[in-house]
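Why does residue order matter? Because the sequence determines the fold. Keep that principle in mind as you read this record.
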Amino acid sequence: MKKVLVALSGGVDSAVSCLILKKQKFQVSAGYIDLSKDSKKKEIASKVASFLDVPFFSFDFSKEFQEKIVSSFIEKYRLGLTPNPCVDCNKEIKFDLFLKKALSLNFDYIATGHYAINRQGKIFKGKDKNKDQSYFLWRLRKQDLKRIIFPLGEYFKKEVKVLGQKIPHSKESQEVCFVKENIDSFLEKKIKKNPGLIVDDKGKVLGQHQGLFFYTIGQRRKINLPNGPYFVVNKDIKKNILFVSLKNDFKKQVFLEKINWLGDSKDFTKVSVRYHQEPVPGRLEKNKLIFKTPQKNVASGQSAVFYYRNQLLGGGIIK
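Structure:
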């Protein structure tokens, strides 16, 4: 019987993942990834494991999480980027530290509650299009895929909720797990305000911003200027200028860094530049991503993720 260590957060997705794998005759254990030393979360996860009658392990990765994910998240915002911490956390914590820990304990596999499909070492979109999380997995290492299981890939969220009705579990986690309030409030406590000019696409000064880290490309919210609404179309980090326009900015091409390939083929046909965006036609020339039709809301620091049909082939970070 193959041994699998499930990343159990205490939520319904990871709890049902344990349940599914037990029914598939795996020898299941639960591994709680402690990122914040929150004793209540750990207690809930332990109760879920007890209810499911599986061994419970706890791993303290709070130091590594703070250094590699939280601090990096803050620094990237300080530099005017729009980072995606879930992509980094998957690479650095769940599918690196957690996987290594599982292998050291002689587990054959790890499993997580991601809505994606791993079919013979190739990742595909999850069956539930509204919950598909393949977008966040492009930074995984190709050689590790043979050790990873996504039990929920063939399920719809509503089915998972039904399966998890009798399991005591915690509430759904928020968008950024370490941000308890909204992101702006979180960043205000971490980054010193740095006022600068707001300039329109004709070079006219319209007002003043309190810090470029508050804004992302394509944003309309919080631009409290008369005769709007205005869109954020660019940020000049060196001069600390926020550029806005009455029309959203569309980009024909962008440059990528940290490109990673998961598929056997690098001939992707479509790309997503933000989570839940329907992939659009594009091509890659070295590190230059060219869209067939110009795209809006393309933000530096976000991920450009490559697909061939429903298969995840790789991705890169928008410069």
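The radius of gyration is 21 Å.
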